[in-house]
Amino acid sequence: MRFMDIESLYPLVTESIRRAEMLEDLGAPGAATAHLDVSLIEEKIAESLPASDPEGAVARRGAVRAALAAKDFTRAQALAARFTAEKGMIPELKVELASLAREGDRVTAKRDEARYPRVSKRYGIAEIRRLAQAWIQQGEPFPIG
Amino acid sequence: MKLDLEMLRQMHPLLPASTAIEYAHRAAIGLDRHRHKPGVFMEADLDGEPKRAHLHWVPSPTNDLAQIDRHRVTEDAAEAIALALVHEARGWVVRRRLQRGESADWLLLDPKRKHVALEVSGIDGADNGRRLREKKEQARQTTAAACKAACVVELAAPRATLATL
């Protein structure tokens, strides 16, 4: 993506937020994609502004929040983890990002429990996730460590 | 105080042109719905201080009303009037829209370049103070800016109340 300054990104994020929220109100299937657009623009804004800048903090929360609204929980958690690890991260924002990440975690846990009720009851969703993560990381289906 | 709703983009350069046009158009529809004419007097309450304002807009064709959701018209008309009001009365300028969950609609800068988070709400009828209380409570929750404000716009009167927290 080419470099865009804040003066170009702000009208874009304003427009994208309005569009995503309008589509969400309509229950339109494109709402999730529109929220993902918002998340990407917020991430770009976050790259231009430090976390200590109030506008940088808004953008970081916005990137995570929009990923959650897009139901892309993996992205939301990855962004929250990346922003939290940034140098100069302010404690208040860290708490807010952690709270957003927990929200993503709670939603994915609920979704996974509904999707795999028997195994989640028997082994617990945390264990299933650990195995799934190990499977993804090793790049081969078996054996799982 | 003259509030020209066609000049939103000039007041707020970072407001997208399409948004400014939509807001002005929907404000025209919303105000026309209450049989107001351009130049109508609006009572403005700025942190308890009464101010006289006059709203100006370009009227829209009457059949436009049937094509747009009523609630959306009220909300967008309120946004247009509130953004014009805070610019003219306080010199605030829009930086960006805030997402739902931030507890405010807009992030603005005041003339001293301090951030202001503004929550806007629109209603067709009269507010008995309840909506303003709700919106003030909501704006209080935001962490987007240290300075927080809520603005409720009543289209029927028309009347706008701005409360800085």
Architecture overview:
The complex is a heterodimer of chains A (145) and B (165). Chain A is mainly alpha-helical and 145 residues long. Chain A has one domain (6-115). Helices cover 78% and strands 0% of the residues of chain A. In chain A, helix 3 packs parallel to helix 5 and helix 6 (117-123) crosses helix 7 (125-138). The mean pLDDT of chain A is 87. Chain B has one domain. The model of chain B has no long low-confidence stretch (mean pLDDT 94). By secondary structure, chain B is an alpha/beta fold. In chain B, strands 1-3-2-8-7-6-5-4 form an 8-stranded mixed β-sheet, sandwiched between helices. In chain B, helix 2 (17-33) crosses helix 4. In chain B, a hairpin with a 5-residue loop joins strand 5 and strand 6 (115-123). Chains A and B meet through helix 1 and helix 3 of A and helix 2 and strand 4 of B.
Brief characterization of the structure:
The complex is a heterodimer of chains A (145) and B (165). Chain A has 145 residues and is mainly α.
List the helices and strands and how they pair.
The complex is a heterodimer of chains A (145) and B (165).
Chain A lengths: L5 H21 L4 H18 L5 H16 L3 H12 L6 H25 L1 H7 L1 H14 L7
Helix pairs in contact in A: 1-2, 2-3, 3-4, 3-5, 4-5, 5-6, 6-7
Chain B lengths: L1 E3 L3 H4 L5 H17 L6 E7 L2 E8 L7 H4 L2 H21 L2 E5 L8 E4 L5 E9 L6 H11 L6 E8 L4 E6 L1
Parallel strand pairs in B: 1-3, 2-8, 6-7
Antiparallel strand pairs in B: 2-3, 4-5, 5-6, 7-8
Contiguous uncertain segments of 5+ residues of chain B: none
Structural class of chain B: alpha/beta
Q: In whole angstroms, how far apart are the ends of chain A?
A: 38 Å
On the 0 to 100 scale, the average pLDDT of chain B is 94
Largest sheet of chain A: none
> What is the domain total for the residues of chain A?
1
How are helices and strands ordered from N to C of chain B? EHHEEHHEEEHEE
Number of strands of chain A: 0
Mean pLDDT over the full residue set of chain A: 87
